[in-house]
Amino acid sequence: MDSIWNLEFQLFVLIAVGFLTRRIGMIGNTGEKSLTDLVLYVVLPCNIFVSFLNQNASENAGDMAAVVLVSVGIQTASLVYGKLAFPKENEDRRRNLAYGMICSNAGFLGSPIAEGVFGAPGLMLVSLYLIPQRIMMWSEGLAIYSGVSDKKSTIKKVVTHPCVIACVLG
């Protein structure tokens, strides 16, 4: 229980530091984007890769497969629910709600929390869980707003995403 409180305290301090540095103008829009890109494309993939190195794949194969299957099920249910649940909303609101159903914030905030609470095994499993969500985000998520889905571009985005590459290499 202490580790959860410790993690929450660390997250609170990081949020407060981020808020204050933004508020006093130390970090502007460009700096914010750069920091986000650094975390998403460098720090998180490195953490994911290291989490796989610390695991025995043969011992965890069942857990890994179960997590991916659960994620596929959740993404499928979210997609169907997102298409059916908001028929009376205007078009813009319906798109936003449907996108929110299939693309959660788990990829950005969930990974550090899983690692903090469950260690490397938790980060490895959440990384696998997020692969179907990333596929949905770059396929159906883009199609919701653009009205078209370019399969070739989607496959390229999924295959070349640093977090997916870290999972494959791990």
Short description:
85% of the residues lie in helices and 0% in strands. It has 170 residues and is mainly alpha-helical.
Molecular structure report:
The chain has 170 residues and is mostly helical. It has one domain. Helix content is 85%, strand content 0%. The chain is built from eight helices and no strands. α3 crosses α5.
Q: How many structural domains?
A: 1
Tell me the radius of gyration: 18 Å
* Separation, N- and C-terminal Cα atoms: 30 Å
Coarse morphology? globular
Give the biggest beta sheet: none
* Beta-strand segment tally: 0
- What would the average pLDDT be, to the nearest integer? 82
Helix percent band:
over 70%
In the predicted model, the low-confidence regions spanning at least 5 consecutive residues are none
List the secondary-structure elements in sequence, H or E.
HHHHHHHH
Which structural class do you get from the secondary structure elements?
mainly alpha
Structure annotation, total helices? 8
